[in-house]
Amino acid sequence: MLEMRPDCEKCGCDLPAEMPGAFICSFECTFCTECADGLDERCPNCGGELLDRPTRARALHARHPPSTERKFKG
Predict the structure, then answer these.
(1) Would you state the pLDDT for residue 73?
(2) Residue ranges of the domains in the chain?
């Protein structure tokens, strides 16, 4: 199951699990749309392809909570 990380690793903006607009690589590095576009859709951490992250319905958060660990280093 995907971690559904809560923020963009590059700019720190919030990326709620139930909303579109996040991109991930195969290691689940997570970036917002604007940052992914600026990265030519390649993960700067591993070089992998950044793809649209699926959304998780809010009704499923209690049973399958998204991650709360932020990865932005600022």
Answers:
(1) 81
(2) 1-65
